[in-house]
Amino acid sequence: MTQVSPTNSKTASLADIAELCGVTKATVSRVLNAKPGFSVRQELQEKIHKAANQLNYRPNGIARSLRSSKTPIVMVLGFHPHWMNSDGPTVYGQMVSTLTDCLAKTHTACFMDLATDDDRSPEWSSLVPDAAIVVPPLTELRYKKLTQDRIPFVLVNEVGPEDVSNVYTDDHQGTQKLVDHLHELGHRRIAYMNQTHFGPSFDYHSSLAKRMTGYVKAMDSYGLELIPGYDQPLDSKAFFNNAIVKHKATAVIAYKSSYLKNLHELAKHIGMSVPEDLSLCGFDRQPPNLLDEFEYTVMDIPMKQMGQHAARIIQEKLDNPNYHEQYLCHENIMIHQSTGPSPG
């Protein structure tokens, strides 16, 4: 095992001490910070302190200040920087903004873990959180680390295992509502546009399967024919040529609302008008940078509400780590000018 010399110019971290001692970073942090209610063998405490001295470890100033003031620390895991941009927060950005505002009111510090490791595992070093908010996916590695380190957490915008506290939506029901809306307008040839590309696993997020199966079951409930291609990762042009040109769909439900503008442009190119000839709708509000004078009918994912309830549940867990709750946030359809009566 490689040991770090005290004269090494690199600042030693909790990870270095943990590696030297053969324990987790959380254990090192709790020993060095003398966390109340946490105890380990005397010989292990001495080993950790000796390693810290050997490596010339210096505590993180922010973390030490927060610890001394007994400020609870919540880490948001899996957040990507591009979710907050100059044009305004994206879907997850709205959730995180609301979450941090709610936590600030209870004097709880909130930090973002911006690690982009392939395994998406949390990479905290000297700042071990008291609790965590997890943005999907909740991988096996992440789940194992959080539970091993006894860090209470809440999963947002995902169903997750039964033993995991979460705040989620019913994507299956959301697709049903969109099909209901289009059916009421007289549409019978309704197509579903799936994610334009699938990752290494189709179950990366439960909405991929739930929105698609929601479409299948909703169409079946009305005795309507499924438009081929609903289960394929087609780009906008390929989908348009297949579903609208070839199979004569009069309405489309898209997995993401960001796909709608491309479909609209393709329709204009062949002389079709929205919604007179083709109705378009999808999931999520339009990203701020895609908003224009034309607004699309969407199934709104209540990310602000999710942020509020995630903050509430995490506060409960900070008081009682055994607290468990799974909260369902209902989606709402926002009807705008992109959906109208069937052309025939």
Description:
By secondary structure, the protein is an alpha/beta fold. It folds into 3 domains: 14-58, 434 Repressor (Amino-terminal Domain) (Orthogonal Bundle); 69-169 and 304-330, 3-Layer(aba) Sandwich (Rossmann fold), CATH 3.40.50; 171-300, Rossmann fold. Helices cover 38% and strands 14% of the residues. It has helices spanning 14-21, 25-32, 42-54, 61-68, 91-105, 140-148, 171-184, 206-221, 236-246, 260-269, 303-319, and strands at residues 73-77, 84-85, 88-89, 109-113, 131-134, 153-156, 166-168, 190-193, 251-254, 279-283, 297-300, 326-328, 332-334. A 6-stranded parallel β-sheet has the order 4-1-5-6-7-12, covered by helices on one side. Strand 5 (131-134), helix 6 (140-148) and strand 6 form a beta-alpha-beta unit.
Radius of gyration: 25 Å
CATH homologous superfamily annotation of the largest domain: Response regulator
CATH topology tier name of the largest domain:
Rossmann fold
* Rounded mean pLDDT score: 83
Please outline the major beta sheet. Answer: 6 strands, parallel
Can you name the CATH architecture of the largest domain?
3-Layer(aba) Sandwich
Kindly report how far apart the N and C termini lie.
Answer: 73 Å
Secondary structure: number of strands: 13
What structural class do you assign from the helix and strand content? alpha/beta
In which range does the helix fraction lie? 25-40%
